[in-house]
Amino acid sequence: METELSTLTDRILSLKQEKRAVILAHNYQIPQIQDIADFIGDSLELSRISKKTEAEMIVFCGVQFMAETAKILSPKRKVILPVIEAGCPLADFITPEQLIELKGKYPDAWVVSYVNTSAPIKALSDVCCTSANAITVVKNIPAKKVIFVPDRNLGWWVQKHLPKKEIINWDGYCIVHEQFKIGDLEQARSLHPDAEVIVHPECPSDILESSDYVLSTAGTMKRAKESKNLKFIIGTEEGLIYRLKKENPKKEFYSLGNSRTCLNMKRTTLLDLCAALENERFLINLDEDIIKKARIALERMVKYG
Ligand code: SF4
Questions:
Q1: Ligand 1 centroid vs 288 CA: distance in angstroms?
Q2: CA–CA distance, 160 with 259 (Å, rounded to integer)
Q3: Which of 46, 78, 217, 277 has the fewest CB atoms lying closer than 10 Å?
Q4: What local confidence, expressed as pLDDT, does residue 5 receive?
Q5: Does one domain contain both 7 and 79?
Q6: Domain co-membership, 29 together with 67
Q7: Using a 6 Å cutoff on CB, does residue 89 contact ligand 1?
Q8: What pTM does this model have?
């Protein structure tokens, strides 16, 4: 079994070199994928790498919208998503038709879309944001009225911090983070009273309100590393807990309630990664007009964020 695994790992590494590829893995990927990736990070960190990379091929171990974002930022490179069915139910919460209708109702509002959206939604947006920069982006854009899509919890969090802005919040949510309940938080706190509670802004609003820190996955990594505290209760997908434990071996990390898994993020295996490199599949192709418009929204995110 171990020999098989090392043969597979060797094959991936040699294909990577042969194809001049870079392997990017989101923080929620399975441990074997995290361990072999060149870079692990959140959407924002991986987008930056996609933009800067000199590699000829970007193999994105994540979900559809992430590989699309890499293609928008690096249109000349081959972008590969090893499992094409790996989608994001949160991104699917809004369709271009629904957004066009909403824009018609609020013509003076700016559309701020979370990066967890499809390329056509980004192309219809004025600016994008991530969970790390959503508040800053909305604060800095020259509009009082904002259509925020698709995550209602992140939208709520932004509105709470920016009461002078009027946020028209879309009613979507992440099916993984939505499962965390306030009772889980109370129980975790009673079991580990000296632990810091860090949650992702896609969690329900009552959890956001009651936590010590509301941070993106990259923000959580940073906080856990810098904090003097030795114990943490983490409210996000379990893949991040693997990385937190690996990079902070002297600290303890507990999931807020039962560990929560994003099945789409867990679809990519080493075999899929190997096949992706070998057969250059599945190539992400986007309409040029969509790339052009979506890129403007992503570049504005850098400007305002
Ligand atoms: S964890 Fe939630 S937001 Fe992230 S990919 Fe899975 S469903 Fe989408």
A1: 26
A2: 28
A3: 78
A4: 73
A5: yes
A6: yes
A7: yes
A8: 0.95
